[in-house]
Specification:
Mean pLDDT: 87
Distance between the termini: 12 Å
Helix content: 10-25%
Radius of gyration: 20 Å
Order of helices and strands: HEEEEEEEEEEEEEEH
Number of helices: 2
CATH class: Mainly Beta
Low-confidence stretches: 1-18, 182-189
Number of domains: 1
CATH topology: Jelly Rolls
CATH superfamily: Galactose-binding domain-like
Shape: globular
Strand content: over 45%
Largest sheet: 12 strands, antiparallel
CATH architecture: Sandwich
Length: about 200
């Protein structure tokens, strides 16, 4: 009888799955990055983010990825918060996560002559799982864009809509990794035992 009750308890646990990359509103991730660690003032092909748990890499040609306190072109962008933000100087860039992201988002802007960018999403096997999906990135202003995917997002390419092939800024990025399978098993077991105790 106890085995049947435990089996019923597991069956009663709702499993929520996200079948595709889905836009989400602002959230507070387990890890955040406002690019405050720098180094600022250098055009590079690569920056570590989230304390080394991810990367921002230059994607395609251009001068490089740049962390700065302000950037003028057709409009001027200042940090969303803190003292620094990141953008691509005539280049696009990509976010790459050591552990695929369940959720990722941040604030985006541009200082170029037209707003917006698109994001394309890839899984751990480098298979496209979503996109191209619009990123707001208004001129001289910040706008939130975020996404989630239960299967895990390994890489996100950010490609500008403007003629300059870059100048998309990001700041205050948030990240939640896909939970390890062991965490799901532990959660299910805990909920199952809780339901068994309540039935008694």
């Amino acid at each position: 009888m106890k085995i049947r009750t435990l089996t019923f308890a597991f069956a009663a646990i709702p499993i929520v799955a996200v079948a595709q990359v889905t836009p989400i509103g602002p959230f507070t991730g387990a890890m955040q990055d406002g690019y405050e660690a720098g180094p600022s003032g250098q055009f590079l092909t690569h920056y570590d983010i989230f304390g080394g748990a991810g990367d921002v890499d230059q994607f395609g040609g251009g001068q490089g990825v740049h962390i700065t306190s302000g950037w003028g072109f057709f409009s001027t962008v200042f940090p969303h918060s803190g003292g620094l933000f990141l953008g691509g100087a005539g280049c696009n860039y990509q976010f790459i996560f050591d552990t695929p992201a369940f959720q990722f988002g941040g604030y985006f802007a541009t200082n170029a002559d037209s707003p917006g960018a698109v994001a394309t999403f890839y899984d751990d096997a480098n298979v496209q799982i979503g996109g191209p999906m619009a990123i707001g990135a208004p001129m001289g202003q910040w706008q939130w864009d975020g996404w989630e995917y239960a299967g895990g997002i390994k890489r996100i390419e950010v490609v500008a809509n403007n003629q300059w092939g870059g100048f998309i800024m990001s700041d205050d990025i948030e990240y939640n990794a896909v939970p390890e399978p062991a965490a799901f098993v532990a959660l299910a077991a805990g909920l199952g035992l809780l339901l068994v105790r309540r039935k008694r």
